[in-house]
């Protein structure tokens, strides 16, 4: 082997080693970037993203897109460098996304639960805005449990043993006078079905000495029709605001978005308060790329949103569902909504 070839091979060794390291070595970082957007007024896989059955709905126009953040885990050193150099992705320590002591499955499960809770809160917030009256509402039924097969999530509970209940405090107060083994009569209303009466034998629960009904309840606006949200493989609570707006839009006349392409983000509480979210700049970039011209921003995210606002995207500040509806009405009528 002549000296020139030997020198070349020696020089190639570190390059080959570095190439192997780029491909094989994983880094303790997760990349965050713009994710897909979904029109809450539209369809996904042949189903309406927000479907309402059992009452009249009204035609909608324009777009009300919820936004997401894409997430990549298990990055190789080469992938991490490529994403970082692109300038479109953010690398964050993996422990911030997947805390030590929690598996990826644990985190994904929590995100899915947050998303389901955001759907429930979105429905309640919209119904409250539309002035539907509150009721003692079943949020979940323990299965197996005393009420499984007799009560359902979404039922409104009106009376216990013939005594009317107007709120959770009254409902719980009546249950506290019972003991395990007692049979109670529950008057309830069910969505898209006739009202009914259930006879339930109370069970036991280590957390209380009175009878266990096996339902989680809350005070929430109640309507006799069903609202379904048909969007899978999305986690976290930040779709709440856009889901609520879609419900309001479908149950009222006029079209909230007009002909506009509106996108946005924000958690929603049962009483309609819009909360702060993460990844606002990634969501704005996704919305802009999808064609949005208006973006609804939770008030507490405004400072960050202004730090990297894509050209041509109007930022509208919102603190409540009512403010978001008013802002959209202002824009479609030529007015000026609150801005970040």
UniProtKB/TrEMBL annotation:
Its EC number is 3.4.21.53. Residues 102-118 have a biased composition (Basic and acidic residues). GO terms for molecular function: ATP binding; ATP-dependent peptidase activity; serine-type endopeptidase activity. The active site is at residues 238, 283. GO terms for biological process: protein catabolic process; proteolysis. Residues 99-118 are annotated as: Disordered. Gene3D superfamilies: 2.30.42.10, 3.30.230.10. Keywords: Hydrolase, Membrane, Protease, Serine protease, Transmembrane, Transmembrane helix. The keyword Ribosomal protein does not apply. It catalyses: Hydrolysis of proteins in presence of ATP. It comes from the Bacteria. The chain crosses the membrane at residues 7-30. Pfam families: Lon_C (PF05362), PDZ_2 (PF13180). It is an enzyme of class 3 (hydrolase). Residues 233-331 form the Lon proteolytic domain. Belongs to the peptidase S16 family. This is endopeptidase La.
């Amino acid at each position: 082997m002549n000296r020139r070839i030997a020198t070349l091979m020696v020089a190639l060794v570190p390059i080959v080693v570095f190439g192997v390291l780029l491909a094989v070595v994983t880094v303790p970082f997760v990349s965050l970037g713009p994710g897909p957007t979904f029109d809450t007024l539209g369809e996904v896989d042949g189903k309406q993203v927000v479907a309402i059955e059992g009452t009249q709905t009204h035609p909608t126009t324009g777009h009300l897109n919820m936004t997401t953040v894409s997430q990549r885990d298990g990055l190789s050193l080469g992938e991490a460098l490529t994403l970082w150099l692109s300038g479109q992705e953010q690398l964050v320590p993996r422990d911030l996304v997947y805390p030590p002591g929690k598996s990826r499955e644990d985190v994904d499960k929590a995100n899915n639960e947050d998303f389901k809770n955001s759907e429930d809160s979105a429905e309640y917030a919209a119904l409250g805005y539309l002035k539907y009256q509150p009721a003692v509402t079943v949020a979940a039924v323990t299965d197996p449990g005393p009420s499984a097969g007799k009560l359902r999530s979404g039922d409104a509970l009106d009376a216990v043993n013939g005594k009317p209940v107007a709120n959770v405090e009254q409902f719980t107060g009546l249950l506290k006078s019972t003991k395990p083994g007692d049979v109670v009569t529950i008057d309830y209303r069910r969505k898209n079905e006739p009202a009914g009466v259930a006879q339930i034998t109370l069970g036991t629960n280590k957390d209380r000495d009175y009878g266990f009904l096996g339902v989680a309840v809350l005070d929430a606006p109640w309507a006799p029709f069903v609202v379904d949200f048909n969007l899978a493989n999305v986690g976290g609570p930040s779709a709440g605001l856009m889901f609520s707006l879609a419900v309001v839009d479908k149950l009222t006349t006029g079209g909230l978005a007009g002909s506009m392409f509106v996108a946005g983000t924000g958690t929603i509480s049962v009483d309609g308060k819009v909360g702060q979210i993460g990844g606002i700049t990634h969501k704005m970039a996704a919305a802009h790329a999808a064609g949005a011209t208006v973006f609804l921003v939770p008030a507490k995210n405004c400072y960050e949103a202004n730090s990297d606002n894509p050209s041509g995207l109007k930022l509208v500040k919102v603190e409540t569902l009512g403010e978001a509806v008013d802002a959209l009405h202002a824009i479609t009528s030529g007015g000026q909504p609150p801005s970040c």
